[in-house]
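Reminder to self: tokens first, then the designed residues, so the page reads top to bottom the way the pipeline ran.
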């Protein structure tokens, strides 16, 4: 099995990687910073989000959207680098917001925990919230088990979201107005906890799947899965995988966000977070 290259280390907890303008953008969630890193490992902090940044995406005019987790807001970074509120979805999202995907029109699909996972609260389903380019928001899916990483197919007609606590990837048709329908299981992978995902040009999806409880058959790796659930590839890492992205030259570099510690306070001291990368044969496709 090929070995990953460590592009950047010493992070708290990296999440939400996106390839954009020749760099990898990501959230060091407990940093709490949005950062970039180039293929030579040179990094830069581009924003600080006190309520913890997560999912990233871009509006058609080039402005960066950032999920602010704990206050359940979607922030926008202007050309001057200043942050403003694009949408407040605190009345729509059940708990902390996490990942999102933004389509070519600037429509953002945002997931959330649904319940207080880290405090051991009873599991509850969550919603997917759609935020339009003008900041107006509405719920477009309910009863989703911890909606997390998401991708949109190149034609803009299908959303696929990782349901972390249901061990599956779930697909929806996207209507012209952004609504979601025709919900179905895209791939069920028992024993997995799918987190961040990345779509490739042959319809495969790379899946980060951290071992959250011990004993997972998918510990210390990410995998590529086809519709229906067939796993075609695995890539091993030293710790745990939390998110993936396809980018670099020809979108053939798989970037993997890894860490051994995802807790807010301890990760600031342990700093086990890394951005790792490896070349793959099938390029990325669609969004993000």
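Designed residues (288 positions):
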């Amino acid at each position: 099995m090929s070995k990953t290259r460590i592009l950047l280390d010493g992070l708290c907890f990296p999440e939400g990687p996106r390839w954009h303008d020749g760099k990898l953008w990501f959230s060091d969630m407990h940093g709490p910073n949005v950062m970039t890193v180039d293929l030579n490992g040179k990094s830069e902090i581009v924003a600080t989000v006190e309520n913890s940044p997560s999912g990233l995406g871009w509006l058609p005019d080039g402005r960066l959207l950032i999920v602010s987790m704990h206050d359940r807001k979607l922030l926008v970074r202007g050309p001057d680098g200043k942050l403003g509120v694009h949408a407040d979805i605190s009345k729509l999202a059940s708990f902390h917001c996490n990942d999102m995907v933004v389509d070519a029109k600037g429509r953002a699909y945002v997931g959330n925990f649904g319940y207080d996972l880290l405090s051991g609260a009873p599991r509850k389903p969550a919603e997917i919230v759609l935020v339009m380019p003008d900041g107006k928001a509405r719920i477009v899916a309910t009863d989703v088990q911890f909606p997390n990483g998401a991708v949109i197919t190149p034609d803009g007609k299908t959303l696929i979201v990782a349901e972390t606590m249901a061990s599956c990837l779930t697909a929806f048709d996207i209507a012209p107005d952004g609504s979601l329908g025709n919900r179905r299981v895209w791939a069920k992978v028992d024993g997995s906890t799918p987190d961040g995902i990345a779509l490739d040009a042959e319809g495969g999806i790379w899946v980060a799947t951290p071992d959250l409880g011990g004993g997972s058959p998918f510990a210390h790796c990410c995998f590529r899965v086809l519709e229906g659930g067939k796993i075609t590839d695995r890539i091993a890492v030293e710790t745990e995988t939390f998110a993936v992205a396809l980018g670099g030259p020809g979108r053939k570099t798989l970037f993997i966000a890894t860490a051994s510690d995802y807790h807010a306070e301890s990760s600031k001291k342990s700093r086990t977070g890394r951005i790792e990368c490896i070349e793959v044969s099938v390029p990325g496709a669609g969004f993000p």
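The chain has a mean pLDDT of 96.
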